[in-house]
Every structure is written in structure tokens, then in C-alpha cells.
Amino acid sequence: MRKLQLDDNWGTWKFGDTDAVMTFTPKTDDKTPNFANNVLTFKVAESINRVNGDYIASAPGHVSTNNADVLLNTSDLSQLDPGTYAVELWITDSITRKTQIYPSDGYCFFTIDQNTMAVTDISNISTKTLEAVYADLLQKINNFKQGAAGKDGKTPKIIAGTVTKLSSDAQPTFLLTPTADDPNTYQIDLGLPAGPKGDKGDSVQGPQGVPGEDGTTPHIDKATGDWFVGSLDTQVKAQGPEAPMPDMSKYVTVDSLNQQLTTMNDAIKKRPTIDALQAVSDQNGKTLAKLNSLIDSLNASKAPSQSASASTSASTSAQNSTSASQAASGASQAASGASQAASNSPK
């Protein structure tokens, strides 16, 4: 909990005293807060019977040499009239912009008393009082001396900071913070209360409009094949263009495939078997053996004519045997070609 204690030595001071200092001691759970990089501001409100009233003034806070107390100079409150005031200490972190308010509960109070310069009955001011006031005024005028012209000061620069939306019942706030880069530039942060919520407006519904006319249903023109909306030709065909007929010559038909299969099957059936080829070979071997025997007999004969005749007959038989052998070989090659064609045909 945050507490704020005002030193009673300067809890009351006279109106017009601008050389007094009020000393405040803030505590957070009985510990002194850290004042580094923080902005200290006193917020003052009117007070009637120790009850706070309207916000009326702000003044800077100054950390004392003991780093535990915060000082408030009465010169910063010279605009206040005599009376009792409620005061809070606001400690704002210049980096996070978070604010701690002391005290957490209630307020501190200080009193400004009236001084001897007060005149309560202005309708019956004595001559001596007027003379005293006049003498004081002359003394101030005589003491006034115009010094040398001072140097022009630097015009402070104000930059926009953050604007915080507060609840509608909160008091507006503002905070001036010197920037770290330029102490002559100040950032202003505002806290603005939201306005009261307005009454809900009346919901007004206009009269129902007149029903519209039915639209035109699109149709397809038989002559052109276009979509028509009423008498308007949209130039859009309702049916797409006819696709070209495919070139069937590039494809194998089922009939041609069946015809090729039939031809190959017939060739397979007509090819000679191995047994038939073997019989032809055996027959040729027997014929050749007979021819060789005949040649041997003719050579053994001494008759030249018979020998020549036998030689001619043997030559003729040999030619016949060769023709038979060639025929058998041709039949074998035909059978092999038919068998290979059958194996390569599609199934």
C-alpha cells in the first residue's frame, strides 16, 4: 500500500509566503520508492471539511538530499487563495509511462492562512489602512530597479506524446516530460475522459418499395443458335462447334486384327512337322547310299560305254538327290519362319 506523510512543520503557511517548503515522505509497503528516471508531480484539489473537491493546480516535486523525501515549494502554489487543500503525489516512470499515486487511500492536506494584509470589510476601510497600503506600494515602487536586459531564452518545444482515454467520471490529466536527447524539448501526454454515453437513437424503417417488374427470360434462337434476351441477339452460341471426325486409319481395327490372327494360325497349321522333315532326310540318305553303290559298281566294270552310261546315270541321280535336299531345306526354313511369326503376333 502507498502512503504519503506531510511534515507538520510546514503543513500550514501564510498566503503570500513564497519562501516556504513542504516536506512529504512517500512509502510503498514501508519502503522508499525509487525516484530515478521518474517525473514527480503534486496534484492539488480544493477541500471543504477535509473532503476533496475540484482539481485546481499542479506543481513539480523535488527529491530531497536524503533521497527519501519529496519537497513542494510554496512559490509554485502562489496562485492559490487562503484555504485548505487536498494533495497527492504522482510519480510517473519516464520510460514505461506508468504512474504511481500516493497515498493509495485518502489524501494529504495543507492549509494556507490569511496574512495581515487581508481586509474583510471593504465598505468601511479606515484611513490608516489605506495609508499603510499606499506606503507599501510606494516602497515596492522605490525598490524596483530595472536591471540590464537579459539574454533571450530558448523557446521550449512541445511534441505530442500519448493520449490515454479515461473513464467518463475521471479528471483530465496532462504530463510534460523533458526528452533525453534535448532538455528543451518536452513531450506532452494527455489523459482525456470519455464523454457520457448518448441515448440510443430511434430505429426508423422506411416504407416498402413497389415490387419490380419481371425480367425477360433468355431463349435460344432456332435460326442462329444464339442466346437471345427478348429481341436482343447476344452473339453467344448456345451450342459449341462440332468436333472433327477422328482419322480411323491411324488405329488398328478389331476386324483387321482378327484377320491377321487367322492368317498366322493357318500358316502354323500348314508348316511341316519335325517327324516329316526327318522322314525326308532319311529317304534322301537311302537314295544317296544307293547312288554311291551304283557308282562303285560302274567304276568296277571294264566296259567304257557302260561306265559312261553309269556315270551319267549316277550324275543324274545325284542331281535329283540334291534337289530333294534343297526342297527339304526350304520346307524347314518355311516352318521356322511360320513359327517365328506366330510367336511375334499380338495375343
Structural shape: elongated
- What's the SSE pattern? EEEEEEEEEEHEEEEEEHHH
Uncertain parts: 334-347
The helix tally amounts to: 4
Strand content: 25-35%
Question: How can the largest sheet be summarized?
Answer: 6 strands, mixed
Mean pLDDT, rounded to whole units? 80
Binned, the helix content reads: 25-40%
Give a structural overview.
With 347 residues, the protein is of the alpha+beta class. It is 29% helix and 29% strand. It has four helices and 16 strands. The strands form four sheets. Strands 2, 4, 5, 8, 9 and 10 form a six-stranded mixed beta sheet that branches. Strands 1-3-7-6 form a four-stranded antiparallel beta sheet, with no helix packed on it. A three-stranded mixed beta sheet has the order 11-13-12, with no helix packed on it. α2 (254-270) packs antiparallel against α4 (304-344). The two termini are 100 Å apart.
Give a short summary of the structure.
With 347 residues, this protein is an alpha+beta fold. The protein is built from four helices and 16 strands.
Could you outline the blueprint of secondary structure elements for this entry?
Elements: E1 2-6, E2 12-14, E3 21-28, E4 38-48, E5 51-60, E6 62-63, E7 70-73, E8 83-93, E9 99-102, E10 108-113, H1 127-143, E11 157-166, E12 173-178, E13 185-193, E14 219-220, E15 226-229, E16 232-237, H2 254-270, H3 274-300, H4 304-344
Parallel strand pairs: 2-10, 11-13
Antiparallel strand pairs: 1-3, 3-7, 4-5, 4-8, 6-7, 8-9, 8-10, 12-13, 14-15, 15-16
